[in-house]
Amino acid sequence: MTIYLVDIEQVIHTCPAFIDPHPFDIRQTLVHVIPGGPCRAPVTVRCGGQTVQIPCHRHEPAKRQCGACRVIVTERTITTRHLTEVAG
Fold first, then answer.
1. For the chain: N or C, fewer Cβ within 10 A?
2. Does residue 88 lie within any of the structural domains?
3. Per its UniProt entry, which superkingdom is the organism in (predicted)?
């Protein structure tokens, strides 16, 4: 299983069109990657006149992929800032 660790920073504001606070800038930063290793269930496909083995993540849907090919994204921190206008 490949695990991606991310930090999320979102900036929210209110505007005349939508009075409720809502995000307008969301940034994700990749912090760390833990690789899952090589595919444990490669798939054999025919290409031209040849048979080729490819990793299962390139051919199968997520629920049928091997444990090494699956991807998990974990949110380490979520930071929310509210943008306020300064009347001047």
1. C
2. no
3. Bacteria
Count of the separate structural domains present in the chain: 1
Nearest to 28 by CA among 82, 78, 70, 83: 78
User: Does residue 26 fall inside a structural domain?
Assistant: yes
C-beta separation of 28 from 8 below 8 A: yes
What residues make up the domain containing 65? 2-82
Distance separating alpha carbons of residues 22 and 25, to the nearest angstrom: 9
- 75 and 8 in contact (C-beta within 8 Å)? yes
pLDDT 10s digits, 39-78: 999 999 998 889 999 999 999 998 999 999 999 999 999 9
